[in-house]
Design a protein that fits this description.
- There is one protein chain.
- The chain has 274 residues and is mainly β.
- It has one domain: Porin (Beta Barrel).
- The chain has an 8-stranded antiparallel barrel.
């Protein structure tokens, strides 16, 4: 199955799940905007959260099933970056990258307290979330696409390596804090990680494929592979045993709509809840 068709099926599943839950529950929906930051964890930054944070923005739609459970569909756009000279992990490697990230996710939210946007009693709650989604990325350095260069020998067929795909699956999870501003508006502060199944968000994963001493400094593909020109083929360039992560954090502001009511489904957020 081609990756594009696979992704289209995933998007369709997400839409059907959210729509199906909406038909069954017919409760309330909130739509709004997201603003905040994004960053990455990987070979060029193994563990320093928020390092080289870049701006991020997006749209959200939340279906409130009751005062504890909700389903949220989000589309975020951000930028991530990594640099050996900033993280100081391997300064003799001198690698760097930046990438635009487009993230589409569907998650289930669980409020630790009863929460209803517009309520004067249940107006605040911490929550956690987990779900699934996919993302698109394209690592570049100095305006040059690193994937196209085949910096670990993909274009040369070194060790049977082939090009990686820039559309991948992810598992989003995290926590947040909701607060009702008035009868229609709610705000949420949120931090969420994305576990991925690729080690190439930063274009760094396996080993070098060139003899650094023989690199032509005028050859962009070769110099981008080993900027210090002091490594040998099969020397470690990255940590192939770990995968890359990225994160979004920030605030969402949403507007609440009341949906229709289905027989047998009692409304929430009315009468004594206010």
């Amino acid at each position: 199955m081609r990756l594009g068709n696979y992704m289209n099926r995933i998007i369709l599943i997400i839409i059907l799940v959210v729509a199906g839950m909406g038909i069954q529950a017919q409760k309330t929906m909130e739509v709004g905007v997201f603003g905040g930051g994004s960053y990455y964890i990987g070979d060029l930054n193994p563990g320093r959260h928020f390092l080289m944070t870049k701006p991020a923005y997006g749209l959200v739609a939340r279906l409130n099933l009751d005062s504890r459970w909700a389903i949220k569909l989000s589309g975020y756009r951000g930028e991530i970056a990594g640099d050996d000279n900033v993280s100081n992990i391997m300064t003799n490697r001198d690698l760097k990258f930046e990438s635009k990230i487009t993230d589409i996710s569907a998650v289930v939210e669980l409020n630790f307290l009863n929460y209803i946007t517009g309520s004067t009693r249940n107006f605040v709650a911490p929550y956690i979330f987990v779900g699934f989604g996919f993302f698109m990325f394209e690592p570049v350095a100095d305006g040059v696409s690193l994937r196209d260069l085949g910096t670990e020998g993909q274009n040369a067929g070194f060790a049977d390596r082939s090009r990686y795909t820039t559309m991948q699956m992810a598992i989003p999870f995290g926590f947040g804090f909701k607060y009702s501003l008035n009868k229609k508006l709610g705000i949420a502060l949120e931090w969420g990680l994305r576990k991925t199944f690729t080690d190439y968000i930063d274009d760094v994963s396996t080993t070098y494929y060139l003899n650094g001493e023989s690199i032509d400094p005028s050859n962009v593909a070769e110099i981008m592979s080993d900027p210090t020109m002091n490594h040998k083929p099969y020397e470690a360039r990255g940590n192939v045993s770990t995968k890359d992560w990225y994160a979004f954090f920030g605030a969402t502001i949403t507007y609440k709509f009341k949906l229709g009511r289905v027989r047998g489904c009692s409304d929430f957020g009315t009468r004594k809840d206010y």
